[in-house]
Amino acid sequence: MAAKTRSDQRRAEIVRAALEVIAERGYRGASLAAVAERVGLTQQGLLHHFPTKEALLVAVLEERDQWDATPRAREWRLDLLASLVEYNAMRPAIVQTFSALLGESVTEDHPARGYFTRRYASVREDMTRLLHAEYGERLPSGLTPEQAAPLLVAVLDGLQYQWLLDPENVDMPGAFRNFLVLLGETAA
To answer: Is the entire prediction scored with pTM above 0.85?
Structure first.
């Protein structure tokens, strides 16, 4: 049991180190050797825990999803989305890693492409349900929730990219609250 605990702790250290290396260099620029060095292992030692770079990437994405455990779609509200944006503004390394992987995943052969494709389909469905719950069949603009959901997701991710590039001049939570005003919500 103690050995399993040590192994689990070591795997968690490796995943955190991989997250840092990917945030700094992107997935393609990250090497197993760099991750191993960061946690004081040889590359062979790291391969004992994660047999491939792709396996490590999957572990990083799964860990990120655990950190971002969010309410199911039926529990989402626009004010909770605003809170999520504020929360993300306190975690630049996590946002940077996610954004770097997302950007790289648009290529056909990227190992995270399937993950992000499935994730975005699910997020768009969640946002469609949220918008239906908030506005019914039409938003104040006249758009349907189905039309507005991809736009909402684009604003969330687009603000993250702008904030990562220029955090001094992009107030991500404030800009998202301004977007909610465009949707017809009362200004905070």
So the answer is: no
